[in-house]
Amino acid sequence: MTSSSSYSGLEEASSKPHLCGAAKRGSAAVPHHSNPDRPETPIIEFREVGKSYGTFTILDKLSFSVRPGEHLALIGPSGSGKTTILRLLMTLETVTAGEILIDGRSLNREERSGKIVQASEAHLRRMRAEIGMVFQHFNLFPHKTVLENVTLAPVLTSRLSKEEAKNRAFELLDKVGLTNKADEYPARLSGGQKQRVAIARALALQPKILLLDEITSALDPELVEEVLSVITDLRNETNMTMLLVTHEMSFAKDFADRVLFFEQGKIIEDGPPAKIFQEPDHERTRSFLRKVIAAGQRV
């Protein structure tokens, strides 16, 4: 399969939201330096993870790892388990089997009184503090202003004082081009603006890991670019580890260092974007991409 042009809506323009205040902590490549004598601990590791609802299996003995600073795109048909992976990492779901590690520490288990037991809510809160998530449907609090939505978590978790949280929120709203909307309520925002607020909110706790779940699927087509532009800047200007679930194949190709193709809760292919999108090994991957192209998307 040959590659066509990359996503055309990501050109730079002064009128588009951008991370003008972000420090250049890393390049567009993975900010990761491997040492063969001292292997780096994965920031995320799934070990034989299973997730089932009754007799229905969502994830089937899933194992993979993610390096610090890596940008991973999870693609595949609906129902293949991609969003479940993000929800497990965010502790919105619990594993049925196996173990998830964050920075070498178990997410779903802990040691108490010399025994390994299921994680307590306190343990989950501590682990979750390292992770931010942007949801498909924004999930903003409708009765709170934009500023309040962004400041709420840092204040409730005592990570920042109210004044510190406010200052941090304005920095983030500036990065996503929405300082002029700080006092507005979500109902008065466009879908693209709501999603940019959701991105700012996810960044408020300065997470090491950012999870992005179909963040453009609820948007009108003309609003997709403004959100993808913000994510592109985050990818290029920070050293956060990022996991992206998307059906925007062109964007996944430009965004990712590595792509995982899922089918029925299993990884069918794992490789760099050029390999997955241009020369996939598995017929199921080729079939999926043919259907994507037939539907009018570019890869």
Task: Please characterize this protein's 3D structure.
With 299 residues, the chain is α/β, with parallel strands linked by helices. It has nine helices and twelve strands. A six-stranded mixed beta sheet has the order 8-9-10-3-11-12, with helices on both faces. Strands 2-1-4-5 form a four-stranded antiparallel beta sheet, with helices on one face. Strand 11 and strand 12 form a beta hairpin. Helix 3 packs across helix 4, helix 4 crosses helix 5 and helix 5 runs parallel beside helix 6. The termini are close together. 40% of the residues are buried. The N terminus is likely disordered.
Biggest sheet details: 6 strands, mixed
Count of helical stretches: 9
Calculate the mean pLDDT score and round it. 87
Q: Order of strands in the sheet with the most strands? A: 8-9-10-3-11-12
Query: What is the helix content?
Result: 25-40%
Distance between the termini: 10 Å
Q: What's the total count of β strands?
A: 12
Give the CA-based shape: globular
What's the helix-strand series? EEEHEEEEHEHHHEHEHEEHH
Percent of residues in β-strands: 15-25%
Low-pLDDT runs: 1-36
Radius of gyration: 19 Å
Write the layout of secondary structure elements.
Layout: E1 44-53, E2 56-66, E3 71-75, H1 82-89, E4 97-102, E5 105-106, E6 109-112, E7 115-118, H2 121-128, E8 131-134, H3 146-156, H4 162-175, H5 191-203, E9 209-213, H6 221-237, E10 241-245, H7 249-255, E11 258-263, E12 266-271, H8 273-278, H9 283-294
Parallel strand pairs: 3-10, 3-11, 8-9, 9-10
Antiparallel strand pairs: 1-2, 1-4, 4-5, 6-7, 11-12
